[in-house]
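Running low. Invent one:
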Amino acid sequence: MKAFAILLLLCCSLRAADSTNAPTPYEIMAKSYGWSTNLSRGKEIVQKLAAKSPEESQKVEINAYRGERVAFAGVGAPGGSNDLVTEHGFYLRVVNRSGKDLRPQSVWWEVMICGKILQVLPENKIIVIEVEDKNWKIIQTG
């Protein structure tokens, strides 16, 4: 039930600025970190992948976006990891070289990350992304 509430909150946040041309809170935050282009590219990739049929998704190479620097906002995925759930229900498998647990000590949390795509698995709605510890920014906790 908590996971559903968190996902609903995320969806509402992502849709908040759809009716106007005003920047979303995520766009404002990304701009403050110099990640505007990265956030736009992350959104574009997720939208392209989400629009594919199951058959088309199977044809996408896992290295299709490898090496691209992108940013995403997401909520903590179920389980004890740094992984996130983001727009369109994509699961971000977040890896970091230090192996450090980046999660805040909270029941739920929302973060913005910027990193490099390692692989995409569109048929499973998974993106594997490598993030430096300094590029993990907490948006809110609860």
Summary: The helical segments are 2-15, 25-33, 36-50, 54-59.
